[in-house]
């Protein structure tokens, strides 16, 4: 067993890095999301079961249109195929928006940079309010006229889905459905598109598509394009379990802030991605957080005399900022290479 350092302490990993025998993550249908309170509570119980035992699940019947999803991936492919100089113009490393080049990030401090490219967006007006000079870093409309409207539409639809999930998490945590409302006035969030080039042969364990990590916010909704297996989830035995794409679903995983609030009952599970498929792989995660000035404290409903509070209260924004600044490599690796040459 070796240890992985995460924002919430160390996790053990089996010495074998081979994926363990396939174990299916549960599929939870959201069809009852607009049902009666009893139906919503039954759905929340399913979410609670998956959140406490695994921290990962697939969600189906989510209401986001497949056409919108396909269009987003079409645009992602076109964006990542642009020449490097055009992609680099859509970059603002200071505000964590826009393009991040290959190995421009490193989620696992033991590694040498993640083998993916990314493009990140948030809510334009919110990004600027946070002090950035400009909003999202769109590629030029001359190069990609449909990128902005398509990605904006995708953001709108997934944001709407995420907003419908917070009341469900509140129920799953034994709280009033509206508990999170006042912590969601201008919530922290990021939507990303990711491109993972294929990796061949023997892979250096320090150079993975995305290294072992937990997500920072409350929960993540992830779309995986096509039928390419890359995502792996660490189970309680320290084995990597495959999480292949399931058509018509998002992967939903619990992230650090919900683990903290739930006093560790909900699991922010370690995961990573390695693209050995031989072809390009694209994914689209959307991270949902709370207002950055909201306090993230252990919920009284999750504390007992046998299980006292395990986490100190923190401000949501300070926690996420700290984790992001540890992840993003501020020195641009392409410029570094030029200097070294
Ligand atoms: O691309 C994937 O499958 C996983 C991405 C991920 O874990 C992340 O961006 O936090
Ligand atoms: Fe992640």
Automatic annotation (TrEMBL):
Residues 187-290 form the Fe2OG dioxygenase domain. This is Fe2OG dioxygenase domain-containing protein. InterPro entries: DIOX_N, IPNS-like_FE2OG_OXY, IPNS-like_sf, Oxoglu/Fe-dep_dioxygenase_dom. The lineage of its organism: Eukaryota, Fungi, Dikarya, Basidiomycota, Pucciniomycotina. Belongs to the iron/ascorbate-dependent oxidoreductase family. Transmembrane segments: none annotated. GO terms for molecular function: metal ion binding; oxidoreductase activity. It comes from Rhodotorula diobovata. PROSITE patterns: FE2OG_OXY. Keywords: Iron, Metal-binding, Oxidoreductase.
């Amino acid at each position: 067993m070796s240890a992985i350092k995460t924002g919430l302490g160390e996790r053990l990993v089996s010495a074998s890095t081979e994926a363990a025998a396939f174990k299916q993550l549960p599929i939870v249908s959201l069809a009852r999301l607009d049902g009666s309170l009893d139906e919503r509570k039954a759905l929340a119980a399913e979410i609670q079961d998956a959140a406490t035992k695994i921290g990962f699940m697939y969600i189906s019947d989510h209401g986001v249109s497949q056409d919108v999803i396909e269009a987003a991936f079409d645009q992602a492919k076109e964006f990542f195929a642009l020449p490097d100089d055009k992609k680099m113009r859509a970059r603002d490393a200071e505000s964590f928006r826009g393009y991040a080049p290959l190995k421009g990030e490193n989620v696992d401090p033991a590694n040498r940079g993640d083998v993916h490219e990314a493009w990140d967006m948030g809510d334009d007006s919110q990004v600027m309010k946070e002090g950035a000079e400009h909003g999202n870093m769109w590629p030029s409309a001359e190069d990609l006229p449909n990128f902005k409207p398509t990605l904006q539409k995708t953001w709108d639809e997934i944001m709407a889905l995420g907003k419908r999930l917070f009341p469900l998490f509140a129920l799953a945590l034994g709280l009033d459905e509206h508990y999170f409302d006042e912590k969601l006035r201008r919530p922290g969030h990021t939507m990303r598109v990711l491109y993972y080039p294929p990796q061949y042969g023997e892979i250096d364990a320090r150079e993975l598509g995305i290294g072992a990590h937990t997500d920072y916010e409350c929960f993540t909704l992830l779309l995986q394009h096509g039928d390419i297996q890359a995502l792996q989830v660490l189970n309680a035995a320290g084995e990597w379990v495959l999480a292949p794409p399931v058509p018509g679903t998002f992967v939903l995983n619990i992230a650090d802030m919900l683990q903290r609030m739930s006093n560790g009952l909900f699991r922010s599970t370690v995961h990573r991605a390695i693209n050995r498929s031989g072809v390009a792989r694209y994914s689209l995660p959307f991270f949902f957080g709370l207002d950055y000035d909201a306090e993230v404290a252990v919920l009284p409903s999750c504390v007992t005399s046998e299980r006292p509070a395990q986490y100190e209260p923190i401000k949501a924004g300070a926690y996420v900022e700290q984790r992001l600044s540890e992840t993003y490599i501020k020195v641009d690796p392409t410029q570094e290479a030029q200097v070294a040459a």
